[in-house]
Design goal:
This protein is an all-alpha fold. It is built from ten helices and two strands; from the N terminus they run αααααββααααα. The chain has one domain (17-293): Rhopdopsin 7-helix transmembrane proteins (Up-down Bundle), CATH 1.20.1070. It has a two-stranded antiparallel ribbon.
């Protein structure tokens, strides 16, 4: 059934519960788990797992990225509950920026982690070199810089919209479609599709190396394979639906032949996919146990005050 506003002719959403109940509930859960889990992970790495090698540096930066994202969620939860944005246009732009900065930062950190594990498994003679702290620091600084360049233009595209006595903080795909169309495609191809190809390639190379290796059953190699599989699962389950539906959402707003019902279905599906993309923080927490830094032992030692058996040999640049 197609519904229109009799005065403006604008297509109305049939089910507002997705926006006003589903989003705050999901973002609230992601905040609680993401804030607690990533803060705990950072504390463990700082207190229990030093000195750091490349893998540890990447994981800490991933946790920092997820923590910053989690800190932005209470503002969105309040907005979707009250149905009125009261923090001004700058904060609207900043919080939408934080979501995408975390999204594409996480994609790059996970890609970097996959490449690191590929080198360790497929080219073990180079493992000692890439595990030096200077490599991890350089890689993470580069990722932060690339993420900033990728998402920086978004600050000028996000806007608020007044509707009577209320103000709406528009998400990226609900802004001016002609403005965000090209940029959305650029982000999807360079920010997601290209890293996905790299992760898939690393997965196939690691799998091939393990299938032809006599040491495939070694815990470190099994852990590297499981880590890559989990990263690939995050790319497909969390990031892929969001990118496809975001492009469909913007495309439906640009099209003059898309019916009201089609626009409503696409918008509702796109809205459902937004917290799904944020659920990558849950998977990222699971990566810590597979990172090969004795994270589990360090966690138990911090909680139960037991001393872990962790090597103190530093690998310096």
């Amino acid at each position: 059934m197609e519904l229109y506003d009799n005065d403006s002719g604008v297509c109305l959403s049939v089910d507002l519960s997705i926006k006003h109940y589903y989003l705050p509930a999901m973002y609230g859960i992601i905040f609680l788990v993401g804030f607690t889990g990533n803060l705990m992970a950072i504390i463990i790495y700082v207190v229990k797992l030093r000195p750091w090698k490349t893998g540890s540096i990447i994981m800490v930066n991933l946790a920092v990225s997820d923590l910053l994202y989690a800190l932005s969620l209470p503002f969105l939860v309040n907005f979707y509950i009250t149905r009125n944005w009261m923090l001004g246009e700058f904060m609207c732009r900043f919080l939408r920026f934080c979501f995408h900065f975390n999204l594409y930062g996480s994609i790059l950190f996970l890609t970097c982690l996959s490449v690191f594990r590929y080198v360790v498994v497929v080219h073990p003679l180079r493992a000692a070199q890439v595990q030096r702290a200077c490599w991890g620091v350089s890689a993470c600084l580069t990722i932060w810089a690339i993420s900033l360049l990728e998402i920086g233009p978004m600050l000028s595209m996000i806007m608020t919209k007044n509707d009577g006595n209320t103000t709406d903080c528009l998400d990226f795909a609900s802004n001016e479609p002609e403005t965000v169309w090209w940029y959305g495609w650029l982000l999807s191809v360079l920010g997601y599709l290209l890293p996905l190809v790299v992760v898939c390639w690393c997965y196939t190379q690691i799998r091939g190396a393990l299938s032809n290796s006599l040491s495939a059953s070694r815990p470190s190699r099994v852990r590297a394979y499981r880590l890559t599989v989990m990263i690939l699962a995050v790319f497909v389950m969390c990031f892929l639906p969001y990118h496809i539906l975001r492009l469909l959402r913007v495309g439906s707003l640009r099209s003059n032949v898309t019916s009201c019902l089609q626009k409503k279905i696409i918008n509702d599906a796109y809205t459902l996919s937004r917290p799904l993309a944020g659920l990558n923080t849950f998977f990222n927490l699971g990566l810590f146990t597979l990172a090969g830094d004795k994270f589990q032992q360090a966690f138990y030692s911090l909680i139960f005050r037991r001393k872990p058996t962790i090597s103190k040999v530093a690998v310096i640049c």
